[in-house]
Automatic annotation (TrEMBL):
Lineage, opening ranks: Bacteria, Pseudomonadati, Bacteroidota, Bacteroidia, Bacteroidales
Official protein name in the record: Tetratricopeptide repeat protein
Organism: Prevotella herbatica
Domain of life: Bacteria
Amino acid sequence: MQNTAKRLNTEIDKMLNDMPSINDDSLSYYEDVVKLMKTAVLCDYFDSKADSKGRIKLHYRLDNSKRLSKFLSPLIDAGMYEYSRRKNDDAMEILKLYLDCTDGPLFQKENQNVGLVAYYVSLLSFGKEDYDNAKRYADLALKDANFAHDAAEIKINCISKQLVTKADSLKYVSELMDLYDKMPENIAYFKMLADYFSVHGHEREVLQFAVSETEKHPENKLAWVLKGEAEQKNKHWSNAIESFKHARDIDSTYVPAVFNIGKCYFDDAKQLKDSIQVGKLRFRKTDDIRYRELLQNAKKWIAEASILDPKQDIVEWKQMLEYINKVIR
């Protein structure tokens, strides 16, 4: 083992002597850095093996740690260089080498960029649909506050891609709830939870989640809108309007909240009219007054939405507003 370590250490000496300048040939420089660090890891592996008498005597670790640690940053650069060239497999191999270097005893104190590297390995693994490894490296990146948000999104997306059984779904929601509780400022988690509940037909859970969130985070306009949408779906117009008004109080320019207040009034008016027509009854004067009053309220809010969203990029208000104007002119 020591003979192998000695041979590899001699190779390291030679590579250091022959190392090109990055200014002369960046590609050759990065290739040599990768080869150097691979050799260093192998050398340390054989150097740490016991001899025939079971003794471990390290000959090269201390010196190699000192003289090679300066190549850890260029090793990351080499990986990112391949990433920029869209050579993702090569980039992943190099970045994994960095993690191997910093995970072992040779460079155990030189791990300040583990979060960055783990994030990119996770991202590249996700791109290859290798969701298990993507999650594993995302967990490593989560330990670095600078990459925790992005790594968490990769992890959650991995879990969502693997939803097959009920147990998978429960795990997904549990992981997502845990991340959202830790980082409530990240609205991506909230939206993903809301989407999951909505898409998978958990109407009651949507409302429960929304109510819980408005209690825990009363300044979260998205929670109030989600609550309003659940109430709106159940035709609880008054409750929905109050929820949307809470969201609008938080952000007076938030178009979905403003528009949906108007839509609640509009749908309430439509429900009144439909109920009378279904019963083949005539509109009483009180019904007509109530109907026009609801449309008048709807007009106020939809007109406000039209000012905030004149090109209808967010909501389609034009047809509804034209109908109201035609009825109550």
